[in-house]
Amino acid sequence: MIKQINNPFILALKARNLTVEIHHHSAYQIVLSNDMPFSSTINGVVHDRLHGFLIKPQVSHFCVAEKGTLNILNIEPYSNIGLKLADRFKENEVSIVFDTPSATTAFFKTAKDSLGIHTVVDALLAELPVNAYDERVIEIVNYIKTNYFEQHITPQTFADIVFLSPSRLASLFKQQTGSSLSKYLLWTRLRQAIYLTLSEKDRSLTDIAYDTGFYDLPQLNKYMYEMFGMPPKALKFNSDLIEIY
């Protein structure tokens, strides 16, 4: 079954029997074992039989989990939740490794043995302040939800909707969400592209790229690799990705 959550800054996957080559991406990434320990090399350091990790953006790494299932969460770094994660690192620290399930639950402040995606996401969201969003921000969010596939959306498009200058709207949106409008739009498109890639496997990736607002497949490949360390073709065929939230 394929599900989605209503936070556009979190792209979460569940992967089984995963092996990926060394890569990096522009998101914070949380990888948690759903059952069996796994191995990972992070920033050149080998970690065997770990149960999870949190890494900063642009940190080189790869994972080998030939048995078991991994929960993988990629989080946009300049969203409010990404900025909150940044505060969890010590000075000069680029990764936080969890050697045991108890270390993981202690870090995320979840109940013992509660490492499911929804539990972890709920714990992350619980740390954020409850914001009363400006009605103009809500209007832009709703516009993106229903029009993300339009290829010619510009800052002026958004400004015209709420009768603000592009610079004033950009400042307001960033102040309330922590993210730029362009990043918000990109993550919405990527989330939908991944959803279609995994739920409609008979469709061509080129069609999916066009239908989710990308100019072509190379552009989708570029952003997918930046965020996930692999192009959509690898996401679709080389990894047994069984669920997206």
How would you characterize this protein structure?
- The chain is an alpha+beta fold and 245 residues long.
- It is 42% helix and 22% strand.
- The protein is built from 10 helices and 8 strands.
- It has helices at residues 80-86, 101-108, 117-126, 135-147, 155-162, 166-177, 181-199, 205-211, 217-228, 232-237, and strands spanning 10-19, 28-33, 38-42, 45-50, 52-55, 61-75, 95-98, 240-244.
- Strands 1, 2, 3, 4, 5, 6, 7 and 8 form an 8-stranded antiparallel β-sheet that branches.
- A hairpin with a 2-residue loop joins strand 3 and strand 4.
- The longest helix has 19 residues, at 181-199.
- The N and C termini lie close together (10 Å).
Question: Based on DSSP secondary structure assignment, what is the total number of beta strands?
Answer: 8
- Sequence stretches where pLDDT stays below 50 over 5 or more residues: 1-5
User: Shape, please?
Assistant: globular
Order of helices and strands: EEEEEEHEHHHHHHHHHE
Total count of helical runs of at least 4 residues: 10
**Spatial extent as radius of gyration:** 18 Å
Structural class: alpha+beta
Largest sheet: number of strands, sense, barrel closure: 8 strands, antiparallel
**Beta-strand share of residues:** 15-25%
Distance between the termini: 10 Å
Question: What is the percent of helical residues?
Answer: 40-55%
The overall pLDDT average reads 86
